[in-house]
Design goal:
20% strand, 5-stranded mixed sheet, Helix Hairpins, Beta-Lactamase
Length: 434
């Protein structure tokens, strides 16, 4: 491509050439007018010749214009292709350094090779200190298993996508969603691009919400308990003190008080899970006895729908060590849902068995099932399937969220299979210590 000096020279030469051609043609025309006698010229033939010359000139100009446009398009396309296939290094450097997203380059051992400005701000350390620092030493290790899994993926060159991590720094912890993309540099060495999206403010807002819900739940439990005791004392009065209609009102009041108490307990459990304050409290658990107690608590609702209950228990395991409160929470929510969403005269099945060091617990119902479109979100907080909201309007959408969180604290997993209008089976796998 020509430089600017060459372009100026070419333009000046074109102007001089055009001026010379114009002066020559103008002189020729002027001389013809002065010295030639036009009295005997055929005007029709002259007009034809002039029209032909003008047409040729016009056609030539149109061709040149079209040809120039095509050349310009080709040049533009070539420049565009060159820009895309071989973009300027400066552009990449500018985007990398000034991006609002934190970028880091790690070598194969996980040491920081390069950082951009956002990464320096997020990690709270100077570029000099970060250089050659082990990146994973900047990540909080409060959840050891999570960090071990991320490190293992990194060592094996597996892509990591949107993992939520806590970053340790002097001015206080920060939160980010991290992605790791392995690549090979120009020298053939394995490296990784790390992206960190700062979610500290969102995390602080979520934490404040959870703390408020936890505080409010604690404070509401006392007046709720007082209302329940007062209603129960009314029912304990001598016969005749209350009329049948008044007793019916008090019983309805007790039912709603219990529903409110259950809702407050759900909110409290959710806030504990979200705040990460719920830790394992292990003890010896008799699972068969626990299931029987949960079943007994739901007798009224179970009988009102004329359901049939089937139990299949593995006699090789009865007592084991786990968190009794969390396990009871899981069993209660799954069994209650099975009853709630089962059709009248339907069937509910509870079973558990041992496989190695795992307990496999499942609850099956013959209920309304979960629509396929709703299944990906079924464990989300405050989410209810579309058919569930129609069939059973009264619900919070917290039960399965609590189940999932409780299972995670127990270091297990929960899955389900469901067919709409046929039924659903939830399966929980948790490790046990005998």
């Amino acid at each position: 491509m020509m430089n600017k000096t060459e372009e100026k020279r070419s333009a000046s030469f074109a102007i001089i050439q055009a001026a010379f051609v114009f002066m020559f043609l103008f002189s020729l025309l002027l001389g013809s007018v002065i010295f030639y006698d036009f009295s005997n010229v055929n005007l029709g033939a002259l007009a034809f010749i002039i029209a032909t010359i003008c047409s040729l000139l016009l056609a030539k100009n149109i061709y040149e214009i079209a040809n120039n446009e095509e050349k310009q398009k080709e040049i533009g396309k070539k420049i565009s292709d060159d820009y895309i296939n071989h973009p300027p290094k400066k552009l990449f450097t500018e985007v990398y350094d000034n991006s609002p997203i934190a970028y880091l380059i790690l070598d194969k051992n996980g040491k920081i090779v390069s950082t951009n400005k956002s990464a320096v701000r997020l990690l709270g350390r100077s570029p000099v200190i970060l250089k050659d620092t082990a990146f994973f030493s900047c990540v909080d290790t409060s959840k050891t298993e999570h960090l071990v899994l991320i490190k293992e993926k990194f060592r094996n060159g597996v892509v990591v996508v949107d993992e939520e991590i806590e970053i340790s720094r002097d001015e206080g912890p920060a939160w980010a969603t991290m992605s790791i993309l392995p690549f090979t540099d120009s020298l053939g060495n394995r490296a990784s691009l790390v992206t960190l999206l700062d979610i500290t403010k969102q995390k602080e807002v979520d934490t404040a919400k959870s703390e408020f819900v936890s505080l409010a739940s604690h404070q509401l439990r006392t007046p709720i308990a007082g209302m329940r005791w007062s209603a129960e004392l009314l029912l304990m009065d001598e016969v005749g003190t209350l009329t049948k209609q008044q007793r019916r009102y008090v019983n309805r009041l007790l039912t709603n008080i219990q529903r409110m108490a259950n809702l407050i307990d759900d909110f409290l459990q959710v806030s504990r899970f979200d705040l990460g304050t719920r830790e394992l409290e292990t003890e010896v658990v008799d699972i068969q006895k626990m299931i029987d107690e949960v079943v007994g608590e739901q007798t009224v609702l179970f009988s009102s729908k004329n359901l049939k209950l089937e139990k299949h228990f593995d006699n090789s395991i009865k007592e084991f060590v786990t968190d009794a409160k969390l396990l009871r929470m899981i069993i209660t929510n799954l069994y209650n849902n099975a009853i709630k969403y089962s059709k009248n005269d339907g069937e509910v099945e509870i079973s558990y068995l041992r496989e190695g060091n795992d307990l496999i617990f499942s609850v099956r119902d013959s209920g309304i099932g979960i629509p396929k479109s709703d299944q990906p979100r079924i464990f989300s907080k405050v989410f209810r399937a579309s058919n569930a909201m129609k069939e059973v309007p009264d619900g919070t959408g917290l039960g399965l969220y609590i189940v999932k969180k409780a299972v995670q604290v127990l270091r297990g997993r929960v899955t389900f299979k469901s067919t709409e209008n046929v039924g659903t089976t939830f399966t929980v796998v948790i490790p046990v210590t005998l």
